[in-house]
């Protein structure tokens, strides 16, 4: 796809230069076809939210698809406008959280012949954590549409904020979280295992979970090394148009041999670029940070600013979270507790100031960031509720921030010209830069 080619909505197609991104997309299509085969043969199939501990399902060999990944695929295939029009026709609010509601909206489509990759297989389970009021209800509606069993998991919140959580997460999670919170999370995992055993007839094997957890650790260590290479190299050897695609898709396969091997391939490709003195944006003058979800229907948006200003988007949460939030060492001692320590903090790390804001500032400094574009979808409580505090803390640290009010998967409210103008004005007026 040539850079600059646009869709009917005026969005720009991205150009991917890394082989790791292409391989990830190819694998996902093959894997998804395999999911269809397994479901068609009668296996149970789970539709889960991103913060559900998928490692349990992986260890039990239960096929599943992650809500956020499917929403991104539907958006990238330009299906969101159709799906959300159907939701509106069915008299649902037009400002539902699109990231969580895409699959439910798609279930209303009477003609699924144009659904991405032959559409979502019929699930028998819908599993989410009760991390916001809307999410649980949307999953329940989704489950009812398919006749699936709805399984909600409780969520807990921290009572204190540790300094530099990213320095404690790998080995010091008993210090990072309270004992009571970890205990509650382990009990919640045991209940999930019991539910899955009864529902599917498959038995949980702790040794298999240890294998899965160690494969995740292997994968994320390669992401940590890749993150550091990109942060330390100016101009950067890779930008987020490639890294988001390569990493996000593989993260939903974490705990598999393929995902760990792909992460190694991804790291090696970036390492080779460094050796070859490859510059992803040869005229790089500005380094930008993208906070929030990917703009899935318009990933080419980032590349416009590369050409015009030499502004390279070098940071996104997808690679950085892999580097700092997932690794848990010593899982053999107590794999369920290690897994609990992995998943209970995800909402804190991403959506809870000052946990997230302090990490964003640290990452901005590490990556020599000149400015931040912060995607704030106003229909998502989790993504918007801390935006004031995040922006203020970063601005107080001397890092200019632009809040871009847009939706990651729904293009109906997107205006390419106005959004391009807003980011251009931010670069021109608020970022100290070399003459361009």
UniProtKB/TrEMBL annotation:
Signal sequence region: none
Sorted UniProt keywords: Iron, Iron-sulfur, Metal-binding
Entry keyword Iron: yes
Keyword Iron-sulfur among UniProt keywords: yes
Cofactor: [4Fe-4S] cluster
Family: Belongs to the FldB/FldC dehydratase alpha/beta subunit family.
Protein name per the record: Benzoyl-CoA reductase/2-hydroxyglutaryl-CoA dehydratase subunit BcrC/BadD/HgdB
Native species: Youngiibacter multivorans
């Amino acid at each position: 796809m040539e850079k600059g080619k646009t869709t009917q909505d005026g969005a720009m197609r991205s150009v991917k230069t890394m082989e790791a991104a292409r391989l990830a997309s190819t694998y996902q299509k093959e894997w998804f076809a395999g999911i269809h085969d397994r479901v068609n043969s009668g296996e149970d199939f789970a539709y889960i939210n991103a913060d559900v501990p998928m490692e349990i399902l992986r260890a039990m060999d239960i096929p599943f698809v992650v809500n956020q990944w499917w929403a991104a695929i539907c958006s990238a295939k330009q299906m969101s406008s159709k799906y959300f029009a159907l939701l509106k026709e069915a008299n649902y609010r037009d400002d539902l959280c699109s990231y969580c509601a895409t699959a439910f909206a798609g279930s209303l489509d009477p003609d699924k012949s144009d659904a991405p990759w032959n559409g979502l297989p019929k699930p028998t389970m819908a599993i989410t954590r009760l991390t916001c009021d809307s999410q649980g209800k949307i999953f329940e509606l989704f489950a009812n549409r398919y006749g699936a069993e709805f399984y909600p998991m409780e969520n807990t919140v921290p009572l204190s904020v540790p300094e530099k959580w990213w320095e404690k997460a790998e080995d010091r999670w008993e210090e990072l979280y309270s004992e009571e919170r970890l205990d509650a999370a382990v009990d919640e995992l045991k209940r999930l295992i019991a539910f899955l055993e009864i529902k599917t007839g498959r038995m949980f094997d702790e040794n298999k979970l240890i294998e899965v957890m160690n494969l995740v650790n292997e994968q994320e260590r390669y992401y940590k090394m890749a993150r550091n290479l990109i942060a330390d190299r100016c101009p950067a050897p890779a930008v987020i148009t490639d890294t988001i695609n390569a990493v996000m898709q593989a993260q939903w396969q974490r705990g598999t041999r393929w995902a760990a091997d792909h992460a190694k391939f991804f790291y090696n490709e970036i390492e080779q670029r460094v050796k070859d003195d490859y510059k992803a944006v040869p005229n790089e003058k500005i380094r930008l940070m993208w906070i929030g979800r990917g703009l899935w229907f318009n990933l080419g948006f980032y590349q416009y600013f590369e050409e015009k200003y030499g502004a390279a988007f070098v940071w996104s949460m997808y690679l950085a979270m892999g580097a700092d939030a997932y690794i848990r060492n010593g899982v053999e001692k107590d794999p369920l507790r290690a897994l609990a320590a992995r998943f209970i903090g995800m909402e804190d790390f991403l959506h809870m100031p000052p946990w997230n804001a302090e990490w964003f500032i640290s990452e901005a400094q590490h990556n020599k960031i000149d400015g931040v574009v912060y995607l704030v979808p106003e229909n998502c409580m989790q993504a918007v509720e801390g935006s004031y505090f995040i922006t203020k803390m970063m601005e107080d640290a001397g890092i200019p921030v632009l809040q871009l009010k847009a939706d990651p998967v729904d293009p109906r409210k997107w205006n390419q010209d106005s959004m391009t103008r807003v980011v251009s004005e931010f670069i021109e007026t608020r970022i100290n830069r070399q003459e361009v």
